[in-house]
Amino acid sequence: QVQLVESGGGLVQNGGSLRLSCAASGTISTFNVMKWYRQAPGKQRELVAAITSVGATNYTDSVKGRFTISRDNAKNTMYLQMNGLKPEDTAVYLCYAAIWKIGRDYDYWGQGTQVTVSA
């Protein structure tokens, strides 16, 4: 029923900026939490940022002050604004959403968008 589609990735130079989008086929106000993960070659998946249905946010230490997560309920879209990009930010960025119900949880994943930062 729910599909998540990422866009906005690309190739940028050290210090550049990108804005990633995650468009949902469902209504994002029904998601208890939405998150951005990233995975670089040879490394395990890392949680980058999260936002709850009431707007509370969290970030991994390495992106604090550089990245901003947000959501637009009218457009059913979540965003990740990335400033001051570094080569170590290079990865596939993945959108995630969850619905928590009594008895079980529901998890949804996008296919990912590539971000490459040149040194």
Features:
seven-stranded mixed β-sheet, mainly beta, four-stranded antiparallel β-sheet, 119 residues
User: Distance N terminus to C terminus?
Assistant: 41 Å
Give a quick account of the main beta sheet: strands, pairing sense, barrel closure: 7 strands, mixed
Tell me, briefly, the overall form: globular
Structural category is mainly beta
Number of strands: 11
The percent of residues in helical segments reads: under 10%
Radius of gyration: 14 Å
Whole-number mean pLDDT: 96
Describe this structure in words.
- This protein has 119 residues and is mainly beta.
- Helices cover 0% and strands 56% of the residues.
- The mean pLDDT is 96.
Topology:
Layout lengths: L3 E4 L2 E4 L4 E7 L8 E7 L6 E7 L4 E3 L7 E6 L4 E6 L8 E11 L2 E6 L3 E6 L1
Parallel strand pairs: 2-11
Antiparallel strand pairs: 1-3, 3-8, 4-5, 4-9, 5-6, 7-8, 9-10, 9-11
Concise description?
This protein is mainly beta and 119 residues long.
